[in-house]
Write a structure and sequence with these properties.
alpha/beta; TIM Barrel; two-stranded antiparallel ribbon; 14 helices
């Protein structure tokens, strides 16, 4: 008869078994919860949300912000504007930009500013300049000169440009018989984000020029849609930056270390992606723009093709302006890049710089990216220009002035002011 000897359970084995059971129970609970959230939860609540206020005390008539995130508008009570997806133009038809080549077409500016609207001034060289004033008035050199008197002295420039060129053929019609100061605006970097591109096309006035990135997908469709909405279009040329080796370059980038013929061949491939543009704008290019030997052949090629060239305001010691003047290329250099830092207060200050420059010099050109905060602020600011005696003009109008009178002079602003 065998006897069973009672032994105490092994502490190690008991601990191992209980640990395994605990881990299984925790994994099952977490997995069940994650599955339930994935199936039943709101995907828009999965990340942190930041709501930015553009007003100190949020007046009752403050505009609603539109973050343009799917589902977010319904959660916070904002209306989501519906936009058709990638519309295609009828075969064989060209978009109508309202161009009338045998007669002037007058384009009215946007609605006047709201009554009682509170605006802030901007500090220039230590002095505060309010909307509707110029720095010369504040500084004493233009004391007693009203914006109307400044406008009356502006000469309506009608430069002689060859008719059968992309600049003339694809430009939006604009007439300024009263000689008002003008502000032009280019929204760049389009075509890489569908939501932001549609917002720029559909929500901004047609006088705003749209610029498409060289990496834009389905570029021809985007350009067609922008032109059907009345916007004139630019194509961006990738150019060599100083940190070229640390990032993946575009296949058709303009480079200093290659021959002029190679750069012109790359330029041709970029321009062949779509028709319908009035000119091009730099995409990066801080290094390329400083090399006169590399810049001159590209400028000559653009001039021969009847295009305009624009600088976005990020280039330092650029050779493009001088080369464009020598080659007779329509050229525009941005007065301000309004959202280099996409912060509401700084964007508002840069918009005031555009106003002041337009009243002081007669013309101003701004560039921006299609950030949601930028588009929301532009939708509020652009309708106020007419009430300040400023006309909103397409970028082609700004560039054409250089063909007759040289580059439009830029305001000299002291960064310490």
């Amino acid at each position: 008869m065998s006897a069973r000897i009672a032994r105490d359970p092994s502490p190690f084995r008991s601990g191992l078994v209980h640990s395994a059971l605990g881990a299984f129970a925790l994994t099952f609970a977490l997995g069940s919860g994650a599955t339930a959230m994935h199936v039943m939860g709101d995907p828009d609540a999965a990340g942190p949300t930041v709501r930015m206020a553009l007003f100190d005390d949020a007046p009752s008539d403050a505009p609603q912000l539109n973050p343009r995130l799917p589902g977010y508008q319904a959660a916070i009570g904002f209306a989501q504007a519906s936009a058709p997806q990638n519309e295609a133009a009828p075969t064989g038809s060209e978009p109508n930009l309202g161009v009338e080549y045998n007669g002037a077409v007058r384009v009215s500016a946007s609605a006047a500013a709201r009554p009682g609207e509170q605006v802030k001034g901007i500090r220039i060289n230590g002095k505060t300049v309010l909307p509707g004033q110029t720095y010369s008035q504040i500084n004493g050199s233009g004391e007693g000169v009203s914006p109307e008197e400044i406008a009356s002295k502006l000469v309506q420039v009608e430069p002689t440009v060859a008719f059968d060129t992309p600049l003339m053929r694809n430009a939006r019609a604009f007439s300024n018989p009263d000689g008002k100061p003008t502000v032009s605006l280019i929204v760049s970097g389009l075509g890489t984000n569908g939501t932001r591109t549609r917002a720029a096309i559909d929500e901004l006035p047609p006088e705003v020029t749209l610029s498409f990135a060289p990496t834009a997908d389905d570029l021809r469709t985007w350009v067609r849609r922008a032109r059907r909405a009345g916007h004139e279009v630019l194509i961006e040329l990738p150019m060599e930056p100083y940190d070229y080796g640390r990032q993946r370059p575009h296949a058709q980038v303009m480079q200093i270390g290659v021959s002029a013929e190679a750069n012109k061949e790359r330029l041709g491939k970029l321009l062949a992606r779509t028709p319908g543009y009035v000119g091009v704008m730099n995409y990066q290019g801080a290094k390329f723009a400083t090399d006169e030997t590399a810049v001159d052949p590209i400028v000559a090629e653009l001039s021969a093709k009847g295009l305009a060239f624009f600088e976005d305001g990020s280039l330092i010691r650029s050779e493009f302006e001088g080369s464009a003047r020598d080659s007779g290329l329509a050229f525009g250099k941005a007065t301000a890049w309004i959202d280099a830092r996409p912060v509401a207060d700084e964007i508002s200050q840069k918009l005031l710089v555009l106003e002041t420059t337009a009243l002081e010099r007669g013309n101003a050109l701004g560039t921006s990216m299609p950030f949601p905060v930028t588009i929301d602020l532009l939708k509020e600011w652009l309708p106020t220009l007419e009430g300040k005696g400023i006309a909103l003009a397409p970028a082609s109008y700004y560039a054409k002035q250089s063909l007759r009178a040289g580059q439009v002079p830029q305001a000299s602003l002291d960064p310490q002011g």
